[in-house]
Fold this protein.
Amino acid sequence: MAFFSDKEMVERIVQLKKKHNAIILAHNYQLGEVQDIADFTGDSLELSMIAAKNDADVIVFCGVHFMAETAYMLSPRKTVLLPVKQAGCLMADMAKGGELKRLKARHPDALTVCYVNSTAAVKAECDLCVTSANAFDLVRALPADREIIFVPDMNLGANIMNATGRKMILWQGFCPTHMRVTAEMIAARRREFPDAPVIIHPECSPEVVAMADEALSTGGMCRYVKSTGAKQVNVATELGLIHRLKKENPDIVYIPLSEQMVCPDMKMIRLHDVLQSLERMRYKITVPEDIREKAVRPIQRMLEESARLSTGR
Ligand code: 13P
Ligand code: SF4
């Protein structure tokens, strides 16, 4: 491929978007160069809501595999492209549909709730899907007399149990990036920046979530920062979010909790990959129709319940 400058790549992407009637969605953890070309940058809930309702023929999903899969399941008539096909989510891959089936067989009366960070095969086994923006409210609204299986994030699950008082059977998956946060890291930041609130993603362990001021989805963090009067904020999530926070609120100083909080998969997509994706219509993400039919139900139920309860943490 010929060498293009960033400016030329951006121009070409804009032309190709028009030609294909495409939109570009980017998760808040994507590289700045990708966030800046996107039509919409957001958290998992916001991106699935857009994927479910838009007039485009093509969605270029700059995120990880389960996000593009979710977009396809909500809009199966559209072409959904993931610019780097290896971009996956380590936590989503920690749960398999077959194993979940066996766990469900041991708890026949339980409701099964999946975090959106899960494969289509796992979603197909579930009653309800949640994201970090609505998980607390949606679990709280479930019938009190039902046992709940929560898959795959044991940390998000434990944080929900602590906040809602609901008992859940937790799958033992976790996010390797958010697992890196330790109590010592938070204590050190508190000593160094005593006036800066600590905002944390609920994929972190309950021990460290208890030490933070707010546990929020990445979209919730963007909203929090807009309304805080603080001049400095400690950010305990993947570093990509800080690009968006700086763009929207440049006068605040953002202190990453740790420079190690990088999700390698979220960093795979470069501007060049977005261009190649639109030029070659690759990589198409689809789900077999028999699985899609089952897996889309918990996602649709989530979107309906979320709208009914006006969630958005
Ligand atoms: P959000 O839905 O809060 O953006 O989180 C997605 C994710 O993968 C966090 O690791
Ligand atoms: Fe998955 Fe963690 Fe990366 Fe989010 S940050 S996509 S949960 S591996």
Notes: The chain has a mean pLDDT of 97. The pocket of iron/sulfur cluster (ligand 2) is lined by residues 64, 89-91, 117, 175, 177, 203, 238, 263, 265-266 (CB under 6 Å). The CA atoms of residues 26 and 35 lie 6 Å apart. DSSP finds 14 helices and twelve strands in the chain.
